[in-house]
Amino acid sequence: MSDNICWVVDLEATNEDASAWAQKGLQWLVQQGLAESIPDSGGALSGADLYRPGPKAAAWSKYIADDLQLCGVEVTVERTVFHTGSNSDQIRCPHCGANHELDAVPWSEAVERWHSDEADDTLACPTCAHSASIVDWTFLEFDWAFGNLGFGFNNWMIDARLATELGNVLGHRTKVVYEHI
Ligand SMILES: [Zn+2]
C-alpha cells in the first residue's frame, strides 16, 4: 500500500513565529474535534508525532485511512520544500506563463538557494528573460509549496473547507500539497 500526505502549508509564517502558529493551528484542530490532543510519539510516516483523527474528523474529510496506525496529522516547523514526491515534468513562469521542461532550467539550484535562505532564490525564464523567486513558479501538474510550517495529514484526504478554515485561523495564505510517498 502506498502512503499519501495532504499538506496544508503556511506560506507566511516566519522561522521565528512558526512554532507559535503551529500551536494555534493544532489548538483549533483539537477544539473542532478534528484531532486528538495527545499525539502518538513518532507515529507519523516521517517519524514525527502523530495526532490521530478526532471525533468530528470524518465530517471534514473525503477519506480517512481504515488502518489508523497510519492516519493522523503531523506538524512540521522548519524551513521545508513541501514537494509532491512524484516527478514533476514542467515548471511555469509567473511572469509570462511559459512552461519549461524541468531539464531545461536550473530549478534545483534555485530550490537549494531558497532552502539555504540565501538572498537570491530566483530562477530566470528562458522565454521572457524575467527572474522570479522559485516560490512563485508553479510546478506541474501538482504544485509544490515553500514554507516554515506545514500540517501533514497522513493518509487522510481532507475536505477543501478544512484547509480553508485552517488558513483562516492562521490568518495567512496557505497552499495544499499532495505528497505521494
Ligand atoms: Zn517567462
Give a short overview.
The chain has 181 residues and is α+β, with helices and mostly antiparallel strands. The protein contains three helices and eleven strands, in the order E-H-E-E-E-E-H-E-E-E-E-E-H-E. Helices cover 19% and strands 31% of the residues.
SSE series: EHEEEEHEEEEEHE
Count helical runs: 3
Helical coverage, percent range:
10-25%
Widest sheet, order of strands: 3-9-1-11
**What structural category do the secondary elements indicate?**
alpha+beta
C-alpha end-to-end distance = 10 Å
State Rg: 17 Å
Segments where pLDDT lies below 50 for 5+ residues? none
What hetero molecules are in the model?
A: zinc ion
Largest β-sheet summary? 4 strands, antiparallel
Shape label: elongated
Per DSSP, what share of the residues sits in E-state strands of 2 or more residues? 25-35%
Structural domain count: 2
Average pLDDT, to the nearest integer? 94
Please provide the count of β strands.
Answer: 11
